[in-house]
UniProtKB/TrEMBL annotation:
It comes from the Bacteria. Residues 100-114 have a biased composition (Low complexity). Residues 139-224 form the DUF306 domain. Residues 93-148 are annotated as: Disordered. This is META domain-containing protein.
Length: 229
């Protein structure tokens, strides 16, 4: 489905919450509490999102966790005028029904959600089952902490560039399609940093060169190479 179909205001069946999606992020509103975050999608139907912050009057501090129905979502499909989120096993996690709401600000989400170029010859598409684990850049780093990313089987990830920690969610699909979101991070600088978290946030494809995991952007430009750590 066209990822731009996600942009709009949706009621989340059975929760009382409203999900407002624009090309740059989303707000999940429940009474006076608002959670906000980032999302990515692909024309193949892959979808991933997570909450990065929250505000509200009913809790101190407000709940900034990602609700289970959203955290588990790995794909999205249209059913009539509704959208249905499914987990990696194909089980539905939530149904979204469109509401009247403000028109999304101009800006084509295709810049972040369009069809990625295919993997270059010689790379084997990364299968989701092969991705969980801890990965470190193929290059040697002198950073204070080891740059790495830990891809969990539940679709979450944590990692570091050697100075700054980051976290988010990831999903993968056919032909090496790979999408990840990334939350806020500190902005410290140090010698030997390797931008592993940034590679994930920009990746659109993942492939294997032997046992080496290669992440590529939507134009099939190589972002970085990772090895099991």
């Amino acid at each position: 489905m066209d990822p731009s179909a996600l942009v709009g205001t949706w009621s989340v069946t059975g929760t009382g919450a409203v999900l407002a999606v624009d090309p740059h992020g989303f707000e999940l509103r429940d009474g006076t509490d608002v959670r906000f975050g980032s999302w990515r999608a692909d024309p193949s139907g892959l979808f991933v999102a997570h909450v990065t912050g929250a505000s509200g009057a009913t809790q101190a501090p407000p709940d900034a966790s990602t609700p289970p129905w959203l955290a588990a979502a790995a794909t999205v499909a249209a059913e009539g005028t509704d959208l249905v989120l499914h987990d990696a096993a194909g089980e539905p996690t939530a149904r979204l029904s469109r509401q009247a709401g403000p028109t999304a600000a101009p800006g084509a989400p295709e810049a972040r959600t369009g069809q990625a170029d295919p993997l270059p010859p010689g790379l084997e598409p990364a299968d989701r089952s092969r991705l969980p684990g801890r990965w470190a850049p193929a290059e040697t780093s002198t950073a204070p902490q080891p740059p790495h990313v830990e891809l969990a089987a539940d679709g979450s990830w944590t990692g570091s560039d050697g100075c700054n920690s980051a976290a988010g969610r990831w999903t993968a699909g056919p032909r090496g399609i790979f999408l990840a979101t990334s939350g806020p991070s500190t902005l410290m600088a140090c010698e030997g940093m390797v931008g592993v978290p940034g590679w994930l946030g920009a990746a659109a494809r993942a492939g294997f060169d032997g046992e080496t995991l290669v992440l590529l952007d939507a134009d099939a430009h190589e972002l970085g190479r990772l090895q099991r750590a």
